[in-house]
Amino acid sequence: MTSTQTSTATGKFMNSAQLLEHWQGHRNLTRRVIEAFPEKDLFEFSLAGMRTFAKMAVELISIGGPALRGIVENKTDALDEEAFVPSTKEELLAKWDEETVVIHDYFNRIPEERFQESFNLFGQYEFPVYQNIMYFIDNEIHHRGQGYVYLRALGIEPPFFWERFAV
Q1: CA 69 to centroid of chain Cα atoms
Q2: Per-residue model confidence as pLDDT tens digits over 93-151
Q3: Cα dist from 70 to 15, 93, 108, 162, whole Å
Q4: Among candidates 51, 11, 14, which has minimal Cα distance to 134?
Q5: Can you give the pTM of this predicted structure?
Q6: Which domain holds residue 70?
Q7: Domain assignment present for 85
Q8: In the chain, how many domains are there?
C-alpha cells in the first residue's frame, strides 16, 4: 500500500451497516416527499398516465420489508402490491414507518457472506442478495424522482435530494 492509498477497517468499499444506512437515508427522504404532498393529490394526481405517488409508495412498501423477510427466511413468495391499500396520508406514513423498522430488523439478520449468494426474489428475479438490495434502492430513487416531478407540477418545492438524513 502506498502512502496515498487508504483502507477501511474491513478493506471493503462499503460494509453492510453502511449500505443499510445509505438505504435508510433514501427512505427518510422518500418519506419527506410523501409528507410534502397534499393528501388529495397524493392519491389522485398523476401525469402522462403514470400512477399516483401513493401507488408508487405502496409498491416500495410492498418490496423492501417483504423481500428482506423472504431473503432471511429463504421464501420466494410472490410480490403483492394489493395487500395494503391506504386511504389516508397518515395511514400510508404509518405503514412506511412500520416497514422501515422491518427493513432495519431483517437487513441486520442477513450475514455478510449471504450478500453474494443468489436469491430468487419473489420467485421471479435470480440475482445475488446485494444486487436485489441495490434494486430496491434504485427503484425507490426512480419513483421518488417521479414524485419530485409531481410536486413541481403542483407548484410544491420538494425536499432537497441531498438532505437524506435531515429531519
Answers
A1: 14
A2: 999 999 999 999 999 999 988 999 999 988 887 899 999 999 999 999 999 999 999 99
A3: 21, 23, 14, 31
A4: 14
A5: 0.87
A6: 16-153
A7: yes
A8: 1
